[in-house]
Write a structure and sequence with these properties.
Elements lengths: L18 E5 L3 H12 L3 E5 L5 H8 L4 E3 L21
Parallel strand pairs: 1-2, 2-3
Length: 87
């Protein structure tokens, strides 16, 4: 039995300099990328297309952009260590 207040897990992560992967290039991805940049993470976005805002960030070198569909086996360094079967 879970109350509504326990549906979300508040979590704080120190992302300074850590690589973070954002999958997709839409508005949600842009918001997530901006939030990760605020936390000083190193952001890579994987998507065939980007929003205008993500395009500017990519052109300025603020984020890395890989122009293709996401394929999990191409990004093993982003997989959490608790899922070794995906490595």
């Amino acid at each position: 039995m879970t109350s509504d207040s326990m549906r979300y897990l508040p979590i704080f992560l120190k992302l300074d300099g850590e690589p973070c992967l954002v999958i997709g290039g839409g508005q949600v991805a842009e918001r997530r990328a901006r939030a990760l940049l605020e936390a000083e993470a190193r952001v890579t976005v994987v998507s065939p297309q980007l929003t205008p805002g993500l395009t500017v960030m990519s052109d300025e070198g603020v984020i890395n952009h890989t122009r293709r569909r996401y394929l999990p086996f191409r990004y093993p360094r982003y997989l959490p260590p608790c899922r070794p079967y995906l490595r």
